[in-house]
Design goal:
By secondary structure, the chain is an alpha/beta fold. The longest helix is centred in the C-terminal third of the chain and has 30 residues. The two termini are 35 Å apart. The C terminus is likely disordered.
């Protein structure tokens, strides 16, 4: 009997058929209202929302660092004019920013439990990945954590532990759900390129070697898989390192497909080959598609980045429905209102229905 790979298991667990979900952030400050929208609008793949408008600690970096501070107070952070900085001391009393972050996350989980306590499908949650954390958080003296390889290694180990603890907490709240843990890595391409600027802005940190970058991400994949969840990675960068993400072993990869139009022909050919390898390896693609809120588009137009990609690969879209999830290009914190969130989801859902209807038409034609 053929054994099932982690990627095949992920496809089977999600049973996507062009399901729709969101990347992470939403507008507003009321998580109960946001969770109600998610419950109503994302039946196939709901997710735990992030509400950065509440303030520092509700953002994705602050939330993730609060979980790391729960592993060790060494990773407690305080706010700075430009972001986050390690507090620089070990203490049982966490900084106020970390206490607020933990309180907000607790409220988020309360809302999720209220709406999804009996939910038995897949449920997505998000944390910031190790390289974006290292590029965004400052050491106590002001340099980015990325400067100190020893500190980076410690942070990565704490993130692995925090991820497992987070999943265990979620399981107690939603005992019947199957979890997808998405690591957000919007900075990983810049870490690899060596283009993360120093505080002065006159230089940049040395690039991280590809094998080192892969190894850190692979540890996250392994920990999540051993726990029993499905890991994934998201990047909305124009030059997201798709090959590296695959080498790290993520069963699902979330990308902004509209960025493909900005690549040169040579660059796009290389990326297309990597997408072909993704589908051949039975990975899930979370396809980020653009939605124009001012001018509602037909589903065919919304699907153009995905349709064009599959056409270049000579792949019939209906054969890949189980490997595709439709998402916005990035978080939706900037769309203004939850009504606009509903509008985005509505357009993506229409695109998903179009793909599924095409499959039904083909199946009915075969029967005739």
């Amino acid at each position: 009997m053929k054994s099932t790979t982690p990627n095949e298991s992920a496809i089977a667990a999600l049973n996507s058929a062009a399901a729709v979900t969101m990347v992470g952030s939403v507008p507003g400050v009321d998580v109960w209202e946001s969770t109600a929208v998610i419950r109503g609008e994302l039946p196939s793949l709901p997710m735990l929302p992030e509400l950065p408008a509440r303030g520092p600690g509700a953002d994705m970096v602050g939330r993730t660092m609060a979980l790391l501070a729960g592993v060790s107070s060494e990773f407690a952070v305080t706010t700075t004019p430009t972001g986050w900085r390690l507090a620089g001391h070990l203490s049982s009393a966490l900084p106020g920013s970390m206490r607020r972050a933990s309180a907000w996350l607790g409220e988020d989980l309360d809302a999720a439990e209220n709406s999804f306590a009996d939910y038995s499908g897949c449920y997505k949650v998000q944390l910031v990945g190790p390289w974006t954390l290292a590029a965004c958080v400052d050491l106590p003296h002001g340099d980015r954590l990325l400067r100190d390889r020893g500190a980076v290694s410690d942070l990565q180990a704490a993130l692995v532990q925090a991820s497992v603890t987070f999943l265990s907490t979620l399981q107690r709240r939603l005992p019947n759900a199957k979890f997808l843990l998405q690591f957000d890595e919007p900075m990983v391409d810049r870490v690899l390129e060596g283009s993360v600027p120093t505080p002065s802005g006159f230089s940049a940190y040395s690039p991280v070697e590809r094998p080192i970058a892969i190894a850190a991400l692979a540890r996250c994949v392994e920990a999540v898989q051993q726990w029993g969840a499905i890991s994934g990675i998201h990047s909305c960068a124009t030059t997201a390192p798709l090959g590296l993400m695959q080498e790290a072993g993520f069963p699902f990869i979330s990308l902004d497909l509209t960025m493909l139009s900005q690549l040169s022909r040579h660059e796009r050919d290389a990326v297309d080959e990597q997408f072909g390898a993704l589908f051949d390896a039975d990975r899930l693609l979370f396809a980020g598609l653009g939605v124009d809120l001012e001018r509602r588009s037909a589903p065919e137009r919304t699907l153009v980045p995905l349709s064009d990609l599959l056409a270049r690969l000579a792949i019939d879209p209906v054969t890949l429905l189980g490997q595709v999830v439709l998402t916005p290009t990035c978080g939706l914190a900037g769309v203004g209102t939850l009504a606009n969130v509903r509008a985005v989801i509505s357009e993506l859902s229409a695109a998903g229905r179009l793909l599924r209807d095409e499959r039904v038409d083909i199946e009915e034609g075969d029967r005739r």
